[in-house]
Amino acid sequence: MNVTIAPSFVPNPPGRGTLGLLWECLFAYFLCLWTAIHVDACGDWEDKFGWCLLTFFLPEVTLFVATTAYFTAREVREGANEGIRDARQPAPTGLEGSEISVDLALLNPSSMSPQETQHASSCPVSQKIVGPGARWGLTHGYLVEMGALQFKLHQTGQKFLDPDGIRRLAKCNMLPTVRFLNRKIKALQKSDKLAKTLVCIQVSWLVIQAIARRIEMLPVTLLELNTIAQVWITLVLYGVWWYKPQGIAEAIEIDFSQCAQCQKQLDANGITPFVLSDRLSILPKELGSPLSLGFIQIVIAVYITIDALGWTAYFPTDAERILWHVSIGMLAVAVTVFLLLVLILRVYKIDTPHVALFVVLFFEMIGRTLLTIEAFISIRSLPIGAYSTPSLSDFLPHIG
């Protein structure tokens, strides 16, 4: 039996191991994806998992959906703010130091909000859910875009309003107030702040290590580069979806169907034709615009550039090196062709996706899959320097 006593303090072994490298990258991979995806209202974990897979293999598709959602939410916000106005505005009387409050709604009968005494007790007007108030923000626009805010105007299944319908609803002072919506968002949202904090810490550490390794001339593995590229996509999604509520499990329904006075007011303001049965019919004018496609092209170009930093890295075999180079080229060409096809479809106003889009996406998915597979299998044979850790104390601010 070995009875040799160890000292009271034993430091960790120097360097890192294969399992440590794998865990570090896999943790960043999946936690970034899971926290970056904002599913629509009433979406479950299966929907979120599906979006994670799509973002992993075809991130530009998720970026296209995210930018489309952003422009839709912005149009909804602008429509609401165009119609919103305070019920009372100070009007000068000509007498110094005094003023009279005038209800502008009374000056415009076509946009006049009905008297609350004429409403049913369960009516949103009586419950102070709707009415004049503050301007909408992008978060409130996202509620409409993601199907979390629904309007039941009549005894039908049509529950969604387009931006012009939102504007008309605001004009007659029957739009949900910001105070009510903020209270509902706070109660329904399930944003995992702890997970996002862990992601930020892990991502920062991963990037700092990669920079430090470059400075000390230590090799950066293909797995680390591929992980940082994927992290870049999720950070962009964080930014695009910054104001989109996350984890809304149930929709907020504004029910006007039980109030005859509301029905009369809604019909008088011509809102009914703008009610849609399908939320996906609410599409922005900027759908497939050069601005959004250019943004996606820049994001994907950075993604490919990060992977391309491993162009001269060590590969176990020459065949794997060639495969890596071909995959990067295939990915760059496929993404460019995909965005050009989307732009062409928009210019010629073709609503049906062309078969060429799916062919390009298939080759793009193949290229990205090959890059990911090679990134993982390459750790079977790495230079010894890949397991050395840089002296971070030389790069971080410290005293002494």
Summed up, what is this model?
The protein has 13 helices and 6 strands.
- H-E order: HHHEEHHEEHHHHEHEHHH
Alpha-carbon distance between the two ends: 45 Å
Number of DSSP strand runs: 6
Largest sheet: 2 strands, antiparallel
Oligomeric composition of the shown chains: single chain
Secondary structure category: mainly alpha
Low-confidence sequence ranges: 86-116
Q: Any idea what the shape is?
A: elongated
How are the strands of the largest sheet arranged?
1-2
Rg over C-alpha atoms, rounded to the nearest angstrom? 28 Å
Number of domains: 2
Mean pLDDT reading = 78
Percent of residues in β-strands: 5-15%
- Count of individual helical segments: 13
Q: Helical proportion? A: 40-55%
Q: Would you give an account of this structure?
A:
- It is a single chain.
- This protein has 400 residues and is mostly helical.
- Helices cover 53% and strands 6% of the residues.
- It has helices at 18-36, 45-57, 59-83, 104-107, 138-145, 163-171, 178-188, 193-215, 222-240, 260-268, 290-308, 318-347, 355-377, and strands spanning 88-92, 99-103, 149-152, 160-161, 252-255, 275-276.
- It starts with 17 loop residues before the first helix and ends in a 23-residue tail after the last helix.
- The model is unreliable at 86-116 (pLDDT under 50).
